[in-house]
Specification:
The strands form six sheets. This protein has a seven-stranded mixed β-sheet, with helices on both faces. It has a three-stranded antiparallel β-sheet with strand order 5-6-7. It is built from eleven helices and 18 strands. Strand 6 and strand 7 form a beta hairpin. Helices cover 26% and strands 16% of the residues. The radius of gyration is 30 Å and the shape is globular. With 512 residues, it is an alpha/beta fold.
Length: 512
């Protein structure tokens, strides 16, 4: 019996040890699995990866919009919440971009907008988001990025959008899309000239200067050639100044002799409107060639249309809304509409029958744009995507293109016109010279427009404010005088980009 008792006791101990051993093995598996999941999360950074396009934009003031990027509640720029966005109504403190531009310049600091490079979510180590990161491809897609951007030097900037409305009452329906405003330009092939990469994507970050392109914050790219304008080192001196003075006075004298009024519209460079989005180390000068030229124009008796104050007001009212294309040197049709209204306010003082259309009269839609010349110069045209607003006059009381001179190989320098037949059948916009007539404006004056590429965004509006409007890709008034007289012109308008002012003085052929 004693042996049997010892045998049973031993068997019970063996069975108990087996159960304990199995329990330990099972528990070990659970812990290993948990550790592995945790390790994968830390490695992939699920909450902070740059590929994540679902960053939350909480509208509660003071919350963080993304890890390491905190929205500040002081110094609100606008009290109205823009419709159809989730951007906070309070904005970060306003920091100056390096001095007021003088004469109605911007100097709005944090109120200025942009669209990409500083908006990539911060690294998974929890550090502060750095603006010195490659520009993301979908930089204009609001939902993929935080609302605010912090630059390397500590400035807080506002991320702006170019693919959706941000103004109250903006009509984005499709009800009036019967007027063709979009070109059917084919985008370049991935292996073509436009995508012959000269700059690697990883290097396209704030501070890069490559092939005449300066890369700034929030995806904004600038022409390197505008640096002198920005720094105030391009003012006219000596014989160039005297030539400008003489040319303007002579032009005004000729216009006045023939009963015409002359207006000069200066389109601000992109960095004049968005100075804080320039790379670190650049400060906008308080007195620049823009200021000098406005005085020269007015002193000659010509009406100068200085757009800086109006552009500043628009940026202040709708800081999320882009006025310029991110990857192009040109402004978009939002800025073109501002320029149009400011110009027509001046003209209507002299010609009461001129027509000014209000924003409520237009349907506005947002479409992908081909305007990416800065990306082109970097050799990465197809990598970047941006959008632009298209305005359609709801009443359809719009002008008809009555004559044009297409130049093969020219780019998109005007709104689309229809080619009814032949190899170019469809919509095109390769125009050097063209003319519109609006039969709904029978009592309105006739206009003749000397222009560069910044006129692109103004043509769709100007053509519906006059009876006859003629657009010539030139700065030379002398070469157009006979045609101006033949057209019984009342209004002469010169549209000149800020960076082209010296070319205007020297009467150089317009190339962009």
């Amino acid at each position: 019996m004693k042996k049997l008792f010892l045998l049973l006791t031993a068997m019970i101990l063996v069975v108990s040890c087996m159960f304990v051993s199995c329990g330990d093995k099972s528990g070990g598996n659970d812990d290993t699995t948990k550790d592995k999941i945790t390790e994968e999360k830390e490695t992939t950074g699920e909450d902070t990866t740059a590929g994540d396009t679902t960053v939350s934009e909480d509208t509660t003031a003071g919350d963080t919009t993304a890890a390491g990027t905190t929205a500040t509640t002081t110094a609100p720029i606008t009290t109205a919440t823009p419709p159809q966005t989730t951007a906070p109504t309070t904005n970060p403190p306003v920091t100056n971009g390096g001095g007021d531009s003088g004469g109605g310049g911007l100097g709005l600091g944090g109120a200025d907008g942009g669209g990409g490079s500083g908006t990539t979510p911060p690294p998974s180590n929890g550090g502060t988001a750095s603006g010195n990161v490659p520009v993301p491809q979908a930089a204009s897609t609001k939902d993929a990025f935080p609302t605010y951007i912090t630059t390397n030097s500590g400035k807080q900037l506002i991320h702006t959008y170019s693919d959706r409305p941000v103004d109250a009452g903006e009509d984005t329906s499709k009800n009036y899309s019967y007027i063709p405003f979009l070109s059917t330009t084919n985008f370049p092939s991935p292996d073509g000239e436009y995508n012959n990469a000269s700059a690697m994507i990883k290097d396209i970050r704030p501070g890069l200067i490559w092939n005449h392109v300066m890369v700034g914050y929030d995806g904004y790219m600038f022409y390197e050639d505008t640096k002198e304008d920005f720094l105030g080192t391009s003012v006219l001196n000596g014989s160039v100044y005297e030539r400008a003075k003489e040319m303007l006075e002579s032009s005004q004298e000729w216009a006045e002799q023939h009963g015409m009024k002359f207006y000069i519209v200066i389109a601000p460079n992109k960095n004049t409107v968005y100075p804080n989005y320039m790379p670190d180390g650049y400060s906008i000068a308080s007195y620049r060639r823009y200021d000098q030229f406005v005085k020269l124009i007015n002193d000659a008796g010509i009406t100068a249309v200085d757009l800086r104050s109006a552009m500043a007001q628009s940026v202040q009212a709708s800081p999320q809304k882009n006025l310029y294309y991110k990857y192009d040197t040109h402004w978009n049709n939002h800025a073109g509409f501002i320029a149009y209204q400011e110009t027509m306010k001046m003209i209507k003082k002299d010609f009461p029958n001129a027509v000014i259309h209000q924003k409520s009269e237009y349907q506005i839609n947002y479409d992908e744009t081909y305007m990416k010349d800065q990306a082109y110069y970097l050799g990465q045209y197809s990598y970047y995507k941006d959008y632009g607003p298209i305005y359609t006059l709801k009443s359809a009381n719009t002008a008809t293109l009555v004559d044009y001179d297409p130049v093969q190989g020219w780019g998109q320098f005007a709104f689309a016109y229809e080619v009814p037949s032949g190899k170019d059948k469809n919509y095109s916009d390769k125009l050097k010279w063209f003319q519109y007539r609006n039969d709904y404006n029978k009592d309105a004056p006739n206009a003749y427009i000397l222009r560069d590429s910044y006129s692109i965004a103004m043509v769709p509006f100007l053509k519906d404010s006059f009876k006859l409007s003629t657009y010539n890709w030139t700065f030379s008034l002398n070469s157009c005088k006979n045609e101006i007289l033949r057209n019984k012109t009342d209004v002469i308008i010169a549209i000149i980009a800020e960076r082209n002012l010296k070319n205007y003085v020297n009467q150089k052929e317009v190339t962009d």
